């Protein structure tokens, strides 16, 4: 449908029953969907690292499950949750999600998706591509601009063989920030090329929340 009018206030104030009332007949148990009348060329897993933001998760899941079937994708969504009160390690969760998803199916590619980023246009295709594809090019809180060339954080689409060749994300980044920049460096030194959809289409709305203080530069 192109540009989607994402009313954050309506979504955040809605009940989980309301968000999912039209999805129960479409989505299979375990958070998957595939076309009934054809075989999709794209089989993908969406990995969402998560802790303590259930409202955000419900809104994102509702939006993705409504959007992705229109792209005729064979997909499954995995929510990888860190328990306890230890410092958050987003990279470890994404690596764990990749390993667990790989045990269940031979996915062509994997999308690592922040829980607070909502796509605003369904022409921003979540399909697999020949090179790593950074999908969250233009984010509202960044004034819809790409802050720097090697940004791959937010929503990243990468083929299975590339993720394995890069040895995944570094597990060493505790706290908020820098694991995505580390991944961009891995791509650069391995000869992979970061691709992006047009900035007019690859737009996202951020769910506002109190963000953790970024780790200091020395620590990074």
From TrEMBL:
Residues 133-209 form the Galactosyltransferase C-terminal domain. The keyword Transcription regulation does not apply. GO terms for molecular function: N-acetyl-beta-glucosaminyl-derivative 4-beta-N-acetylgalactosaminyltransferase activity. It is found in: Membrane. One of its GO terms (cellular component) is membrane. It holds the Pfam family Glyco_transf_7N. The keyword Signal does not apply. Residues 2-129 form the Galactosyltransferase N-terminal domain. It is a single-pass type II membrane protein. Pathway: Protein modification; protein glycosylation. Belongs to the glycosyltransferase 7 family. This is Galactosyltransferase N-terminal domain-containing protein. The gene is 20214687.
